[in-house]
Design goal:
Helix content is about 90%, strand content about 0%. With about 240 residues, it is mainly α. Helix 1 runs antiparallel to helix 2 and helix 2 runs antiparallel to helix 3. Pfam families: PspA_IM30. This is PspA/IM30 family protein. It comes from Microbacterium koreense.
Amino acid sequence: MAKQSIFGRISTLVKANINALLDSAEDPQKMLDQLVRDYTNSIADAESAIAETIGNLRLLERDHQEDLQAAQEWGNKALAASRKADELRGAGNTADADKFDNLAKIALQRQISEENEAKAIAPSIATQTEVVEKLKDGLNGMKGKLEQLKAKRSELLSRAKVAEAQTKVHDAVRSIDVLDPTSELGRFEDKVRRQEALAAGKQELAASSLDAQFTQLEDVGELTEVEARLAALKTGSPRSAIEG
């Protein structure tokens, strides 16, 4: 009962604290730190309760030992009184011998009483001893759980930091995704492409104008040749294309 009541109260308290922390959890680190503190405090409460239980057990053991010691002392007194009575009866002093036999009987009664008290305490001592051992085991288990909690706390905080970093990297990558037409880089790329197209158009236009100029030069050359031949006809010496 003592074991159940102690750890039952602690278990209820710990569960209530955990549920309250989970319901109001905003900062994982603060929640885990508070959980470690609460569990540490629960262990301290358990240690205090167990120490009280052990103290009660030691009192029972002391009382039991005192009863056994008292029973042994009364037994010794009964033996001494009985021997004295035998000695007196052997000497013919029956009256005094009877007195010492009566004292021996009283001592034996007290011995029996002390032995009965010792017997009555013995089951309680056995039960309390078993309870204390279980409480000690339970306390050691709680301490082991606390170490696991601390280790789990470190693991969860590390995982939370990694997840946070991964989220930041993911968000950063998304913000510069060149395939995203809404991103700044995408719009800048569109602007560069338009500028390149404009430059290519101007270059093509310039090339077209140059070709036209060369065509005009060829046309001028043909007209000059015609004029030369006409002049030759007028002078009576016609030119041929072969003469150039």
